[in-house]
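User: Sequence recovery, please. Input:
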């Protein structure tokens, strides 16, 4: 630090010049409590990075994923329904059956069922399709939220829940943004119930839903059906599908007479009357004891005398007389 008067160089921090004694000029200090310009720039840069990442995530979620052209037709729907009818007939006849369905047949059936299922919670289902990849099922659902289409993709192992095709997702995405399946709790809840998502429904006896060589397969095992005996001990074949069931004639049951009411004897009536009187006398005696415990002797004597006057010959009347004497002795 140089002295402004004599030009002598002094040590940093000195207030006066050691040679001439003049006052030295101190460097101005930065005010406390204010952030340095470098820190402000760092915070602003961090905020810009966060906002940029959020914008990228939103853009990816709103984009339409890569999808092949949807192939549906009325003939494919007819083939799918014909296979379902054949499976139901095989089940009724007690025969095993294996159903195979292509992507076109399933997507055509979904397009028809989509008219009945238009809403999942607060989200309106706009479109749904499936893809069969190796041994996994991929389902893409388009939903409208506040007028905007959002595509949700789920991929996983196919399964049956309450007869309806579903899947256990291990991968999920919203638009082109991959996410964890647990981040879609509403969709997972609908999948566990087998409701909401417009996927085909099969007979309850169907099982072993799998994806094999680009086709969806499921089987229905033979179920043993009881055969009713026909004429001369011969066994009749099960009823043909489509025929109305014959009404079974009802056999009138024997009308059983109502049980006669037993009339109580005089001794039984007297015993019932005695128990009622004894119960009432005990309750009055207990009320009197309660008043005695809280030193309300007038009320206690009143209930004791009720027992004595109404049931003078009972055992409770003797106890009531003793209690009256005890209360009087306390008052004296």
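Assistant: Recovered sequence (332 residues):
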């Amino acid at each position: 630090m140089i002295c402004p008067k004599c030009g002598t160089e002094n040590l940093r921090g000195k207030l006066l010049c050691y040679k001439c004694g003049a006052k030295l000029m101190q460097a101005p200090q930065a005010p406390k409590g204010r952030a340095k310009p470098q820190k402000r720039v760092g915070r602003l840069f961090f905020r810009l990075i966060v906002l940029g990442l959020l914008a990228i995530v939103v853009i990816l979620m709103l984009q339409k994923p890569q999808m092949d052209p949807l192939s549906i037709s009325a003939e494919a729907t007819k083939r799918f329904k014909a296979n379902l009818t054949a499976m139901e007939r095989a089940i009724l006849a007690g025969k095993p059956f294996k159903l195979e369905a292509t992507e076109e047949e399933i997507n055509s059936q979904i397009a028809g069922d989509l008219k009945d299922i238009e809403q999942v919670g607060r989200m309106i289902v706009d479109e749904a399709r499936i893809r069969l990849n190796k041994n996994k099922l991929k389902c893409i659902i388009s939903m409208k939220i506040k007028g905007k289409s959002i595509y949700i993709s789920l991929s996983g192992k196919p399964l049956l829940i309450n007869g309806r095709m579903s899947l256990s997702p291990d991968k999920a995405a919203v638009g082109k943004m991959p996410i964890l399946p647990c981040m879609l709790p509403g969709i997972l809840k609908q999948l566990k119930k087998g409701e909401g998502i417009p996927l085909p429904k099969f007979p309850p006896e169907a099982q072993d839903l799998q994806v094999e060589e680009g086709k969806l397969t499921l089987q229905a095992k033979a179920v043993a059906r009881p055969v009713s005996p026909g004429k001369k001990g011969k066994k009749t074949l099960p009823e043909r599908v489509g025929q109305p069931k014959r009404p079974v004639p009802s056999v009138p049951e024997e009308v059983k007479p109502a049980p006669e009411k037993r009339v109580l004897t005089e001794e039984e009536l007297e015993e019932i009357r005695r128990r009622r009187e004894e119960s009432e006398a005990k309750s009055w005696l207990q009320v009197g004891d309660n008043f005695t415990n809280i030193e309300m002797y007038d009320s206690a004597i009143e209930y004791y005398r009720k027992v004595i006057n109404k049931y003078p010959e009972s055992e409770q009347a003797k106890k009531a007389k003793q209690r009256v004497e005890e209360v009087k002795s306390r008052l004296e």
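The helical segments are 37-62, 74-92, 103-113, 185-193, 266-293, 297-310, 315-331.
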